Amino acid sequence: MGTRESWSSWKKVFDITGRKKPYLHLERASSEGICFCKCKRALVAVPDQLDCPWCGCGWLFMCVFCGKAFTYAKAVPVNTPLAEIVERDLVGRGWEKDRTMTREGVTYMKWMLEQVQEGVQYGFLDGLLVPMGLRNIKLDGRSAVHRIKILPHERELKTPGSLMKELSRVSYWTRREHKPK
Ligand SMILES: [Zn+2]
Ligand SMILES: [Zn+2]
């Protein structure tokens, strides 16, 4: 088990006063949908998708601070360097400090955060960031190929419970699985 830092040690992540180069990170946008994170504010952690995307690791965000899941994220400026956030996050999860792992995490997050726009809300699906409002979605994810009309995270807002019902089904994922090469 890792030892997570207290919320107060993270608080200044959001303080951009006097900083020349804040950059956009993803923050929990609401507590709607599935939300186990109770932090005052929450940043998105490096996705940790395993071979069981249906458990939530393939379709929920994880909070850097408490390690718990949430559904919706939006862009927010932060000042703490990404590498520091990623390293503190991984150490908090119980990993040894490891340069390679930190670098891989940073690369992934950079790629993800490059796409982020202020004012847009996102859901997470199969390793990818998906803007809410998108229709007729075609995604080539880490585990599966998704051809869906609407993001299940968006449907959840009108039909609470539908997100869990749809994406926690193993068959949702196995039916769309990448063909073995
Ligand atoms: Zn999983
Ligand atoms: Zn949290």
Which structural traits does this protein have?
alpha+beta; 181 residues; 6 helices; globular; single chain; two-stranded antiparallel sheet; binds zinc ion
Fold and architecture overview:
By secondary structure, this protein is an alpha+beta fold. The chain has a domain at 7-132. Helices cover 28% and strands 20% of the residues. It is built from six helices and eight strands, in the order αββββααββββααα. It has helices at residues 7-10, 82-92, 99-114, 152-158, 162-167, 170-176; strands at residues 23-28, 61-62, 69-70, 73-78, 121-125, 128-131, 135-140, 145-150. The strands form three sheets. A four-stranded antiparallel sheet has the order 1-4-5-6, with helices on one face. It is globular, with a radius of gyration of 16 Å. The site of one zinc ion (ZN) has 5 residues, from loops.
